[in-house]
């Protein structure tokens, strides 16, 4: 995520940013570089806003930039969360979204009735509710966003071991009109 943001510094020249479940290192980098309003939000206390991603407490078109890195796989109703991200994103703004994904799978693998142990075995973590498949772009588009897939290799991540990413790992730069 940071490699992408660092490669596209123009994205940081915004008036307002919402960072969902902010990671410490990315948060520190953003605080040092952003000049506009920076809002952090999570379901846990300790951030600017305690929030439910399926019912964001912001008016429509509130943010120029939304960062959502490895969050949606934890949300029960991820499709509603995607719609909420689209709702609070200003037209022309960017929602940068990254999730665990296996593109070789045609569809997202999600089974709501798994135990924590079963989720850990199936999805890699006991608090993950799904692993996304090749249908991720369609899900984001159905939420009302236009989607650009950005491969890690296209933003200078050539040392995949150092960055801990797969060669075809992607994030999604989403916009609304």
Strand order across the biggest sheet? 3-2-1-4-5-9-8
CATH architecture assignment: 3-Layer(aba) Sandwich
Query: Could you please say which CATH topology applies here?
Result: Rossmann fold
Order of helices and strands: HEHEEEHEEHEHEHE
Fourth-tier CATH superfamily name: Vaccinia Virus protein VP39
What is Rg?
Answer: 16 Å
Overall pLDDT confidence: 90
What does this structure look like?
This protein has 177 residues and is α/β, with parallel strands linked by helices. It has one domain (2-175): Rossmann fold (3-Layer(aba) Sandwich). 26% of the residues lie in helices and 26% in strands. It contains 6 helices and 9 strands, in the order αβαβββαββαβαβαβ. The chain has a 7-stranded mixed beta sheet with strand order 3-2-1-4-5-9-8, sandwiched between helices. It has a two-stranded antiparallel ribbon with strand order 6-7. Helix 2 links the parallel strand 1 and strand 2 (37-42). The longest helix has 11 residues, at 78-88. The chain is globular, with a radius of gyration of 16 Å. The two termini are 23 Å apart.
